[in-house]
């Protein structure tokens, strides 16, 4: 057997690894055929024949257990070794539900294999048992929370709140950002960072998005008003929603059904999605064609690509709250001033998020920033309380 860090060559009849060996690595079979067998007493039983493109030895590597079978080359073979860290890193980053399902299947396979070979099933180490138990607990909690989120949506228990956005020069509430909140009957308030992320991992974000849109249209109808000065509502849409080709058609249908002018709904696209320039450009064009405005959310959080920004015709830039909180630093103040100036040059409105002090508001007024949002202006409020601000 010829062995290197990147390629293993095994001649016909050679054993790659034996039953009971330690799991040093897995392999990708590039060329040839390998027979996998297990022993039951003196009897050898064939489990299968692997061909080019198959993985072998991966199960023992994943759960750090001794080899449960022997791999023998039927022909001259070429394999690529896969180090255990390559699996471990991917498993650590995987969804806990997927990880728990995989380990559950491995456990069942090992149990069946032990019965087939007449051996006692190998007991995992305490460390492995603890890791599996932790993964299973996280996975079950996540599955349970997703089911409860679906039930909350069905029962219309998700609440849409409106956070006011102040037009600084006139000191009036010019609009709101729609934010979704969920109070679980047992867990209490669930962080949007948790349940929105959970919804985005599945198709659940689509019906939730439609639900929030309907609530926003109802709020806009209650607000009333017409013309350019009529209050607007900004609604954040996720990447998964933007993948849905029927999204904007449903938005327009909901606005028409509610008798709401499209210009009063502002779509917010998070800055991380701007990396997909072609898709975002097309979405902006469709929104503008329908009369809706588009905002770039969380501007300055690390994904900014100024090389494309001038081509993406956003109507509004929402400056990340991290800049506002550090405006006492002269260098950060200079960055805020530059962002405001850039927005003006691009003929964009600009919203400063996270405004919490009168000093920050005064500085933004001096810089010519049009809108401010944050706890100084107002916290996310139930719709009736938000409407009372107008």
TrEMBL record:
It is found in: Cytoplasm. It holds the Pfam family EAL. Its main location: cytoplasm. Residues 1-108 form the Cyclic nucleotide-binding domain. Residues 142-390 form the EAL domain. GO terms for cellular component: cytoplasm. Gene3D superfamilies: EAL domain, Jelly Rolls. This is EAL domain-containing protein. It comes from Tahibacter soli.
